[in-house]
């Protein structure tokens, strides 16, 4: 569903990695699952706020994990600059 993420060689998966990359201003596109915990979503969106990052909302964590090529759900993923 998210072809760009599926084929990206410079993708990050998981909250810790994504937050680190946002803080380092390395994220171009941010993917967040709609069914992720509200506190996690809020923390990620707050970190991205005011930065030049495109935010894409995924339907759910399972779909986002599958798109990233992992066998578990994930709340977020990103494509680095």
Side by side, the strands of the main sheet go 1-4-2-3
Q: Sketch the topology as an H/E string, one letter per element.
A: HEHEHEHE
Largest sheet: 4 strands, mixed
**Mean pLDDT, as a whole number?**
94
Radius of gyration: 11 Å
Distance, first to last CA: 21 Å
Count of individual beta strands: 4
The computed structural class is alpha+beta
Shape: globular
β-strand amount: 15-25%
**Low-confidence regions:** none
Report on this structure.
- Helix 3 (38-48) links the parallel strand 2 and strand 3 (54-58).
- Helix content is 40%, strand content 25%.
- By secondary structure, the protein is of the alpha+beta class.
- It is built from four helices and four strands, in the order H-E-H-E-H-E-H-E.
- The relative contact order is 0.33.
Descriptive keywords:
4 helices
Quick take:
The chain is an alpha+beta fold and 81 residues long.
How is the secondary structure organized here?
Elements: H1 3-7, E1 11-13, H2 15-23, E2 27-33, H3 38-48, E3 54-58, H4 61-67, E4 76-80
Parallel strand pairs: 2-3
Antiparallel strand pairs: 1-4, 2-4
Helix pairs in contact: 2-3
């Amino acid at each position: 569903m998210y072809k760009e993420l599926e084929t990206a060689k410079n993708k990050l998966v998981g909250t810790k990695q994504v937050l680190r990359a946002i803080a380092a201003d390395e994220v171009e596109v941010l993917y967040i699952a709609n069914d992720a915990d509200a506190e996690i979503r809020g923390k990620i969106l707050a970190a991205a706020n005011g930065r030049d990052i495109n935010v894409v909302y995924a339907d759910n964590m399972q779909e986002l994990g599958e798109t990233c090529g992992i066998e578990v759900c994930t709340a977020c993923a990103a494509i680095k600059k």
